[in-house]
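User: structure tokens for Nucleotidyltransferase family protein, please.
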Amino acid sequence: MTSDTVSDLPIILLAAGQSRRMRGADKLLEEVDGLPLLRRQAELASAVTTGPVLVALPPAPHPRYRSLDALAVDRVPVADADEGMNASLRTAFAALPRGAPAAMLLLADLPELTKEDLRVVLQAIDLKPEALIWRGATEDGKPGHPIVFAAPLFEAFASLQGDGGGREVVAKAGSRVALIPLPGQHARRDLDTPEDWAAWRAERAARNSR
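Assistant: Done. Predicted tokens:
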């Protein structure tokens, strides 16, 4: 895979979940860096590829669509989003352009990920030609996101059911998974409850005040 190919890989952004643990709020519309989190993540994805950015969303109408106004991303409604994450994966991978050699999968609820993190994972693809998956990891080696899947794995997403989050596809790759260390807990730090958000914002304010 050449560096030219890496620069135009499609990126899938998963944003069809229901934020059930937020008790009425929507975690993907919480503000991060002055933007709704979903828009921030979509802008990150758009900044690192010249390929399409596909955003898996609940069926319209939904407030998340407004947060993407004027962004050149492909909105991909997931008709059966209530089923769980695998419905989003089935739908989004089916919407990929034909002939894509690989695709990056990015969760919308990881607010510490940066453009540089995404680029580091994309650039690592050339370094592990025997791999089928290139996956961001925490600084202590725990696997997380983003994840790049090579095209031979795309078909496996078509039969996913439930809320496994694609773990079955990762398992199919066996040892052919390259972990790419990212700073801190960028690859795994998600915020699912109001308490998570409050704690994260307090941590961030403390870091910025030093």
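User: Anything notable?

Assistant: Residues 102 and 174 are 17 Å apart (CA to CA).
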